[in-house]
Amino acid sequence: METAGIWTLWMLFVSATACSLCPLRVPPRPRPLDQYKLPTIPDFNLETMPVFCNFSRELVVDGECRSGFEKLLCTTDETMDSLICSGQAESVERCSACAKKWHESKWALSWWDSLGKPAAGVSDGNYYWLGDYELCSQLRREEKFDGKYCRVELEIPDSLVEEGCPQTDPLAIVLGVCMPSSCTDDQLHRLVERYSPYKTTIDCELDMRFSTAAVTLLVLFGLWVVLQIAVTVVDSDSLLLLCLNIKLNARRALSTKRNEKKGRCGTAVTFRAPQSLHALHGLEFIAFIWLITGMVYNLMQPYIENVAFSYDAVSSLTVHPTNNYSYLVDGLLAMSALYTTYLLYGEMSSVNDLLHVVRRTLLSLYVALPPRFRNWNPKTCTKMHSFAALVLVNRTICYLATRFWPAYAFCVLFMWILFPESSSGPLWIHTETAERCSNSWWKNILFINNLFGVRDTCVDFGYVVSLEAQYFVPLIALIYLARTRLLLAKIIASLLMSVSTLIGFYRTYAGALPPAPLLTAEPIE
């Protein structure tokens, strides 16, 4: 059980930063540019172009944000004037003044150079024009322009609809822009929408200075690590402290041997998990590795330069493991239900046993076995065998309540507080994740986030964890019912599955949802 628990925590942490909802962010199939409603550029004349400095004073933003744009655009005007420098041939002073102005204002050219520009391969799926993040950071470090890197997404609508198979996904072009740091995201969004003919969204990098909540979480995590190191170094016989021993836990996690001792009744006194389902544990491990591999592939899907390659390879058999990986979640839930049924079936002979399991599930935080089951007694062997699996399940539930839930809660807090601030870069802008977690973190740790929608899921894998927790209660009720009324339990289980399937069909039909959030072949003509 300890080894399985260590593996569970490891897989949990990997899955918490994984991408099981990535199919919802799969980029559209690349199409020729003439299929989109691109803007028409009117006659462009440099001589009639208004002065940048005057334009910046007309921006509908607050004073601090406007001053940032004024510094940038007015400096651009000075740079252009210093390049033209009329009268420099007649006056040495004029030439010297222009050279000085050029030296002081040439950083504006670096700003314009940092903007995202159309790149090659747009028809092949190169939608991310990130610009130069380092130039924006350099201007901030040199205190020439206090900017922050932002990604502006322009949704260019499709001008065609293929007969029989509509494909109207907009072309989402992402531009990297170095905006004034004095402007909020809302101000920048209103400003971009004012001058853009398309629907836009804007995400800016977060301040890299850790917040008070982030510092508090780091301190708590550091104390936890120090406590584990201290317990590992100092030898102690306390059962509670042994749970934190790094050496002991690592030995259990990496050991493939069974450490059992036979009791007087011929049963292992350690109450470890039944070891007869090696195949099931192996299948779960393979499914997890397969699932994570598919997540990693789909995580980078929107950012690659040749998205068309992924669509063209759909017909290949080797692509199916990464394209259809989301269906593995159903298999993992089924294997978990099978293992729980294997442990409980036939051991709940009364309603009291059923309530006993539910009470342990909701309230018990005690990891060790109940006192009446700690010692073997020949007179109670029959009773021990009657409740052996139930005690094992109770201990498993306690184990998950004291090990799994805190680890999962830490992953939720990590994704909410630390993850967005832990790094920086043009692709390290996780404003959406931070907003989702700030509004729904409590729904995740209570295992109810899947009842509200994608926007209420903090970690992508959280909806699977919630399903596991929610399915457990009706499962043990069906197991109890199946002991005496097997046919009725089968009918109820079939009705539940049918209702769940029909609800999915109804929501897909009523909401006009796509057939599947994954890569598909070319529409049939």
From TrEMBL:
Q: Which residues form a coiled coil?
A: none
Tell me where on the tree of life, at the top rank, the source sits: Eukaryota
Domain Nose resistant-to-fluoxetine protein N-terminal intervals: 92-209
Concerning InterPro entries, the annotation shows:
Nose-resist-to-fluoxetine_N, O2_lipid_transport_reg
Record has Disulfide bond as a keyword? no
Positions of transmembrane segments: 213-234, 285-304, 397-419, 461-481, 488-509
Matches recorded under SMART domains: NRF
Q: Which UniProt keywords apply?
A: Membrane, Signal, Transmembrane, Transmembrane helix
Carries keyword Transmembrane helix? yes
Q: Where is the signal peptide?
A: 1-18
Q: What is the name listed in the Swiss-Prot or TrEMBL entry for this protein?
A: NRF domain-containing protein
Origin organism is Angiostrongylus costaricensis
